[in-house]
Design brief:
The structure is a homodimer of 406-residue chains.
Chain A: E1 2-4, E2 9-12, E3 15-25, E4 41-43, H1 46-53, E5 56-62, H2 67-76, E6 82-87, H3 96-111, E7 115-119, H4 123-131, E8 138-139, E9 142-143, H5 147-160, E10 165-168, H6 176-192, E11 197-203, E12 207-211, E13 214-218, H7 222-239, E14 254-257, H8 258-261, E15 266-267, H9 272-284, H10 293-298, E16 300-306, H11 318-333, H12 340-352, E17 367-368, H13 376-386, E18 391-393, H14 395-404
Parallel strand pairs in A: 3-16, 5-6, 5-10, 6-7, 11-16
Antiparallel strand pairs in A: 1-3, 1-4, 2-3, 7-18, 8-9, 10-14, 11-14, 12-13, 15-17
Chain lengths: 406, 406
């Protein structure tokens, strides 16, 4: 892979927010020439990528997405990444979760790769969280519904498997080649980061819109425009310089080092992606004292990398977009960094979009606490003992499980 | 990359036509485990692919395709492949060819890869063919218009650059990741072939159709259905067993060993892809005596490999489809293998499709003779001296040119 070095970095306290980097080649070959001279384009060779894939878990949150799409996504994920599927698909009237397990099992049978699947509502999971006093992920006696909750479960499983990095890829992608590029971008960003606390966010080159006339290759999604505007407004307010640095406020596809991931507070539902940025700026931006002074020295690197592949995915409809917009803007609204004037603008946009009516105010966010303090050995023990939906596939993983676990 | 071994092979004289092979993983990782046991799935590691890319030229025939698509296609082609663009884009009123050169030059500036571009109507090319008595590619004092003619020029340039394999990728592809997969499939097929005379044809998993309701993932293109039906009918007639082996009659994306490519006769225009199969069966199928008895011993391997990526490309409209159907069926009709009964069926389909009217008969094919006998050193000398449109980009290629050429 060949891609730009970051050309510009906005520094906000300990947070280093880099401008969008462009990918030039998906496969940069084995020829050695390139490294010899001073370059502004970074060549990342197959060996570097492969080594990073071995430390990376790809988490796929899924909720009734089409199985053909899931299978395509799986085929695009590099073999050496650990696949973790966290499913919130219903088990009745048709057991969708079981069908997902069967699909995964069949796929693994032919490729013999490491893959784990678990159902979000598994009572065993909830018991583990109860016993380990990690209750912010629960609602009653089960794990709360929501994409964020699934992602946190995935991260805990990645941590228990000893992975150093986690990446997220949605299950509704039409293009296996794009999925493969995401994973390569995750690894490239990890390799280019200077801090152990790193995040890589995918910026899509195009989000094609379909009409009867064919395609229109739109540059930005409809939600991202709003989310990015307000995230940039937050930063501009504190630095005193206008900025457009954030282009990936709603990046469903993103990756983090485990060291960073376990320190973050997550917001439930669809606000998880923008809230990660809000939370990082709150924690490490230097406006408020940090809970983690040791990290202030190392810095937090946020890279934004633009794909070569356009983003062809399932159209989830207007209602879904409205919910995404609401959740994205609510989480910015709720930040202790948010000024009165930004709050007013957000309320105006929400009312103009028909999302808030009358005198209603944004609701309280459901926040999931950092999982750093969760006893991971205990978590592994309980999950393996009591999660009846936990499936571990691949000959390597099954063997590893026999020796390491319980 | 991980893909099936061919599960079934139809043997027709010296021609080995394998059933469609399925790709399981785009990137099969560096872990070694897999090779230890007996497998029906072949793992092809990065090193094997990279080595093959070094011997492979990717030829891109282009005629006024959108430059953003060309740039995307370039970004998907593995760095170690030699890119050869043969352009038949107009030079007036806007010099489209020059814009293509500029695009290529800018791209190469950032990635420093080997790339060659030439204009199909360059008088220097025509002079070379005149002097080397390779006149079947000419019409008057220029190279004839047509995709096949561009492809043959590309193959001659690949041969003069010492490449052992050529692959073809159309310039109208929306998905750089799919392009990357094509190149990986070409290399995988080459590595899996047992004969030095090999061809790899791409079968698309889906050809999505766009409507206002979104996508429908059709399994087959509209033309392929007819082309494949009649190619299979030809084979079935001679073997006496019904077959559906051919699924890639119109595969624009395909690759060949130079040893095979230089022996084939090519048909002008859009019939080039199906005619390659017709010509191989005529030459090596054993029904007629072969011009190349030495090859009968080695055999000709034709692999068909199904992508994981769907085929999203520019919709060229109904007229283009009709021309493709006409040319595809004409070239089967014209084969000396074609029986009266198959000819009757083809005429019926052409009339039903409104392509042939009244008592009209299919026109004569324009055939381009094998280029094996073209004196390649002389070709290189003339082309480099007289082709003013020939551009050779990349520091490696420019250096190589200085020492090796003229």
């Amino acid at each position: 892979m060949k891609l730009d070095f970051p050309r510009y970095t906005e520094r906000f306290g300990a947070v280093n927010l880099s401008s969008v980097q462009r990918v030039y080649e998906l496969d940069s070959g084995k020829s050695e020439e390139y490294h010899k001279t001073h370059q502004t384009v970074r060549k990342i060779c197959d060996e570097e990528l492969a080594e990073t894939f071995g430390k990376l878990a790809i988490i796929i949150p899924i909720k009734s997405e089409k199985l053909k799409l899931l299978e395509g996504v799986l085929s695009g994920i590099p073999h050496d990444c650990l696949v973790i599927i966290v499913s919130n698909s219903p088990r009745q009237p048709v057991d969708r979760f079981k069908i997902e397990c069967d699909t995964l099992n069949q796929f693994v049978h032919f490729v013999d790769r490491d893959a784990i699947i678990v159902q979000q509502k598994d009572p065993g999971l909830a018991e583990a969280f109860q016993e380990l006093a990690y209750k912010s992920i629960l609602e009653g006696n089960r794990v709360r519904d929501g994409k964020a909750e699934g992602m946190v479960i995935g991260m805990l499983i990645a941590k228990m498997m000893g992975k150093e990095y986690v990446g997220f890829i949605d299950a509704d992608n039409y293009i296996p080649g794009a999925v493969n590029e995401y994973a390569r971008i995750f690894a490239a960003g990890i390799l280019m980061s200077h801090s152990p606390y790193s995040m890589v966010r995918i910026s899509w080159i195009y989000k094609p819109k379909v009409s009867q006339d064919g395609f229109y290759f739109a540059k930005w999604g409809r939600i991202s425009e709003f989310t990015n505007k307000y995230l940039n407004a937050l930063i501009s307010h504190y630095t005193g310089f206008g900025t457009e640095i954030i282009k990936t406020g709603n990046a469903g596809e993103h990756a983090m080092s485990m060291k960073l991931a376990e320190l973050l507070t997550y917001s439930s539902g669809f606000s998880i992606e923008p809230y990660e940025l809000v939370n990082i700026i709150e924690e490490f931006g230097g406006v408020f004292p940090s809970n983690y002074p040791e990290i202030i020295n190392e810095g937090v690197d946020i890279l934004q990398i633009e794909t070569r592949n356009p983003h062809f995915h399932e159209d989830k409809g207007e209602q879904h977009l409205k919910e995404m917009l609401r959740d994205s803007l609510f989480c910015i609204f709720s930040s202790k960094l948010c000024t009165q004037s930004i709050k007013q603008q957000i309320l105006k946009d929400l009312k103009a979009g028909g999302i808030l009516t009358g005198r209603k105010q944004p609701h309280q966010l459901n926040l999931i606490q950092p999982f750093k303090e969760v006893n991971i050995a205990e978590f592994a023990r309980i999950v393996k003992e009591r999660c009846s939906t936990l499936g571990m596939y691949g000959s390597n993983l099954s063997r590893q499980m026999e020796t390491v676990t319980l």
